[in-house]
Design a protein that fits this description.
Radius of gyration: 45 Å
CATH architecture of the domain at 56-121: Alpha-Beta Complex
CATH topology of the domain at 56-121: Outer Surface Protein A, domain 3
Structural class: alpha+beta
Distance between the termini: 169 Å
Shape: elongated
Largest sheet: 18 strands, antiparallel
Helix content: 10-25%
Number of helices: 1
Length: 257
């Protein structure tokens, strides 16, 4: 065998082996580059903030382990939103809703389902807080008008108004009522500082009024059942008291000094 031909065959064999190795290396590099590209894209996708999820429904009910409803968020029959919460025995205890005429209100119930406290923004712009007894009557009601004038009302077990305290443009006034709701006595302080006390009969007709001005002068008037002043007693700032008696027509019949 010719030595030169043997070397040439060996060289050609080695060249073919090297070319195969180069092709395999290029393939492995391509696979590695593709893997790196996929890994980088996955990392970038993982870093991208996910969009916020929005749940849309007409009713949402939260149930306890026993399957009983504990909370309901949904729409009323007239399409207004409301939130109702029940206790573990199934009694409604709290309701937050927007009632008809877009009036928001909050009602709190006792374990028997009776409304004991309620808060609402009324259609005239005033706000009201109501507290009731165990049968849903009586209690107290605090209201604040749209112009900021507050009023506090107390009611008995028959749901009859017995006392009202108001603060408005006329001043601070306290009215006390009988079991029929008739105002029997009123005490007030006017914006100018003068004060007054009025006592009325069962029909609400003033029978006696006492007024005290800021300058110290005082006046007492006694009236008949028709509301006609029959006796007037006054003490002016000079200290000289005067007494006048009137007839049924309101004409003075006697006076002193």
């Amino acid at each position: 065998m010719d030595p030169l031909n043997g070397k040439r065959c060996e060289q050609r064999f080695l060249m073919r082996q090297l070319e195969g190795i180069r092709r395999r290396n290029r393939l492995l590099k391509g696979i590695a580059l593709s893997c790196l590209t996929l890994i980088g894209a996955s990392l970038l996708m993982g870093q991208t903030p996910q969009p916020k999820m929005t749940v849309e429904a007409q009713e949402f009910i939260l149930r306890g382990k026993n399957g009983k409803a504990l909370l309901r968020l949904g729409l009323s029959a007239d399409g207004m939103p409301g939130l109702t919460m029940w206790d573990k025995t199934g009694n409604a205890r709290a309701v937050l809703a927007v009632a008809s005429q877009d009036m928001p209100m909050l009602s709190l119930m006792d374990r028997d389902g009776r409304v004991r406290a309620g808060f609402a923004i009324l259609t005239d712009g005033s706000s009201a807080l109501t507290l009731s007894d165990s049968v849903g009557k009586g209690g107290a009601e605090l209201t604040v008008n749209a112009d900021g004038a507050p009023s506090l009302t107390f009611k008995d077990k028959n749901d009859t108004t017995r006392a009202v305290l108001t603060l408005n443009a006329a001043g601070a006034i306290l009215r006390l009522c009988d079991s029929n709701g008739t105002v029997r006595s009123s005490l007030g302080v006017a914006p100018n500082g003068s004060s007054g006390l009025a006592l009325s009969d069962g029909n609400g007709t003033p029978g006696a009024t006492l007024a005290l001005e800021t300058d110290g002068s005082a006046a007492l008037r006694l009236s008949d059942p028709n509301g006609k002043v029959r006796v007037g007693l006054g003490v002016p700032t000079n200290g000289q008291a005067g007494l006048v008696v009137f007839d049924a027509m309101g004409k003075p019949t006697w006076s002193t000094p």
